[in-house]
Amino acid sequence: MKTESLEKCRNEIVQKDATIAEQVQTIYQKDATIAEQAQTISRLQDHIANLEARLAASSTPTSSRKNKCTPRNLQMRSDCRTLIAKQASEGNYYDYNVNFNSPVNSEITKKVCNAYKDLNNLDDSSLPRAEIEQSCHTYFRNAKQDHSRKARGVFDDHRKHVRDKRRKGTKLEERRTALKSVENFSPEELELYELGKFLVETIGLDAVSSEDDLSDSEDGTPVRRVRKFCWESPKMGHVKRKLDNIYLNEYATPAKKRKMGIRIKNSTCPLSKNPPPKNAPGWMLKDAEKGLPNQ
Q: Which of 15, 131, 165, 231 has the lowest tally of Cβ within 10 angstroms?
């Protein structure tokens, strides 16, 4: 009887241990769910704050929006970045794990407002508090995104993507400017204008090659290697080179030329594997160009 009683007790203990283990596991799962929900709520609060800021901006009179990038506002943004960095040097950091309007982050923003007031010798009535808070929120949003990218190990890739997109946009505008020189000339230049305008206005950034940074030259001029599209036809390359040369020779200042740097374009440069645009005509495509009329 004692043996049966002990066996029964042992079974009950095992069952209770299993029940407790299940309950502990359930608690862990609930904690994880709560943490996920808290993060979701934080992201939603940031999103709502961003939408509210955009809504407020959209309801601002047109005359006010046109002054968005006035020297005064640009100086204010610069001052805010400097004051936020000063707060960080004193150990007062924005917490990117919570939303911008949380108590800890609101305290940082308040300190920035007070520091801006002291910096510019303002009183409370003349302090542009709403504009300062908006500048702080913009800084917070961008810094939080960078913080997340660093945590995921994609920060450098993102910076490269942004830099490439900015360079492509600049190159596109340079070619658009160059088109002004070939609007009404010889038939050859007229064809150049028509093809160039198609590349700039219709294809856009998809026709602009990316570039790799190399070591600067001895005089400090940046050197970049151009990645030609693997599908790019000789005619497309010719049109782009002509527009680039026109801009370089007729529009670029000496300072602009130094900033543009040295671009290496030869057979040793790696090719870009990006696919051609879906609306690319035959003259743009290397494999389709032969035997096709100009389009």
A: 15
H helical segments located in the chain: 2-58, 62-66, 71-89, 103-119, 129-152, 155-178, 187-197, 234-250, 254-260
Q: Which residues contact 205 (CB under 8 A, 6 or more apart)?
A: 165, 168, 169, 172
Cα separation of 44 and 261, whole Å?
44
Residues 6 or more apart whose CB falls under 8 angstroms from that of 236 comprise 199, 207, 283, 284
Q: How is residue 157 annotated by DSSP?
A: H
- Within a 13 Å sphere around the CA of 236, how many CA atoms are in the beta-carbon half? 26
Class of residue 208 by CB neighbours under 10 A (exposed 0-12, middle 13-18, buried 19+): buried
Are 225 and 264 within 8 A, CB to CB? Answer: yes
Q: How many CB atoms lie within 10 A of CB 64?
A: 9
Question: Which whole-number Å values give the CA distances from 152 to 32, 94, 148, 156, 190, in the listed order?
Answer: 20, 19, 6, 11, 50
Backbone angles phi, psi at 265, to 5 degrees: -130, 100
Three-state helix/strand/coil letters over 26-82: HHHHHHHHHHHHHHHHHHHHHHHHHHHHHHHHHCCCHHHHHCCCCHHHHHHHHHHHH
What is d(CA 89, CA 85) in angstroms, rounded to the nearest whole number? 6
How far apart CA 253 and CA 227 sit, in angstroms, is 25
Q: CB within 8 A of 19, min separation 6: which ones?
A: none
- Tell me: the pLDDT tens digits for 121-176? 998 888 999 999 999 999 999 999 998 898 889 988 888 888 888 889 999 999 99
What pTM does this model have?
Answer: 0.56
> Tens of pLDDT along 221-280?
778 888 889 899 999 999 999 999 889 888 888 888 777 777 776 666 778 888 999 999
Name, in order, each residue with C-beta under 8 angstroms of 51's C-beta and a sequence gap of 6 or more.
none
